[in-house]
Amino acid sequence: MMKALPRSIPSAEGVDPQSIIDFLNASEKAGSEIHGVMIARHGKVIFEAYNAPYRADIRHIMHSFTKVLTNTAVSLAYTDGLLKLDDPISKFFPEYDGTEVDNEYYRTCTIRNMITMRNGQQRSIGGNEWRPLKTSWKEAYFKVPFDKEPGGTYMYSSGNSYILSYIVQKLEGKTCRELVQERVGKKIGLSDFPWMLSPEGVCSGGNGVSLTTEDMLRIGLLFLNKGKWNGEQLISEEWIDYAFGYKDPIPPVNGVQYNFHWEHTGDLWCGGGMFGQTCGVIPAYDMAFAMTCADENYLAADLFQKYIADRLHDSTEIPEAGDVNPADPDSWYADKTGNTSPYKMDGPAVTMDDILRQKGLRMTLQGKNISVPHLQVQTDYVLTPEENKDGVTCTEIHFTEDTVTYAMTDARGRHTVTAGLDHWISGTTTMTGAYLHHQYEQEITLISAEAYWSQENVLMMEWRYPEMAFFDHLMITFEEDCIRIDRWVNMNSQDRSRPTLVCR
Predict the structure, then answer these.
(1) pTM exceeding 0.85
(2) Domains of the chain from N-terminus onward
(3) What is the pLDDT of residues 351-393, one digit of tens each?
(4) Second label for 279, Cα 20 to 30 Å away, from 71, 302, 358, 422?
């Protein structure tokens, strides 16, 4: 059974709880949507919260934070003496000797160049390009020419991480997931996380892992502690020094130093994933944090620096915790009469730690929408859309007194979402969505959905997927001669909306 991380409260660990409240408020104001957040100092969790419907036990797609795990797998092969940072990648792919791939740039590209995103290829490769690809990802990678000196130009590419994953599996005889879980994950208490495989049966490398927020935090604490957990050195300290740029640092690009997928700015070293999935460590303050997000502008880490790290530079004295037992949440509060405070301080009984915890408990993204007066509708609609790009052949709308079910049939089958009318319902769905979700498509995904009438003839639906950064809106417009259905997403690397379905 996984051993729980020690718990405390901010003030007991020298952190002003007001700074965390200000960080949460600033993130909300800036549109940096936090799904889950955990903060630890001195090895103890001082704050944890989730915006409903996101939860502590639901794994969230990590996007490129996956690269931290891939590089950890490389570190294990490095420790085992199976590869060196200055090994040319050509050493591991003799099948390309003498082919059109084999030029001076390819022959001098090293493992280090791949990890630091300076491989010298003509263009980058993103996960959304390869996830739909059913043929060899390795062959696809080497079709992109090496056309510049490796080690020079920084060019971020998930393709590099896939090739590293391929090399590790070739050398260790097991996937990166198997290797990392066996030698690191189980020892630090990671959940049994999934990792997407390529058609070749290799972990996708640059992306494809889903973790809980606590999984991320545990990884951050491992790196903060120089690769050591409960006295055991799981990742070599030398590798951590490379990863953080303490050893052989890479020149910054636009003020950011990218090392082994840990970016260094200000006090923070952050391993990140698309749309704001962030694990950060602050060695100067013995602090680590983890956030799952829908953060299109990547502001959360900067806000953490501004509202929390910067305030630790010249922090004022935190009220001393009197009879508080940081490991016992029941001791954190004033008694039920409100006449006493657990802190040795004058003033109101409710402490800022109390206010912060209550704020965390009340966080939600399930807004309450109330329907306006609307037209009378049938109980059931079964509709045929006009020819459309998405190959949707049938749409259905089914009403009960307090639910709305939307169904759509396409090449993948029939998919349904049931939403509460003016309230939220949680369940699962197979609804097609890769084209709006950075090409992620799970066979079955969790969903939380609400429906409401926004205008007399317009029914809105909001679909939140607790395992992803994405959420969709569906707008169903009832017109005299047809029903129009529009669908769009909060953010995406590609199209954000689908062509309108005109249904009769």
Answers:
(1) yes
(2) 1-58+212-365 (3.40.710), 68-191+199-207 (3.40.710.10), 380-503 (2.40.128.20)
(3) 999 999 999 999 999 988 999 999 999 999 999 999 999 999 9
(4) 358
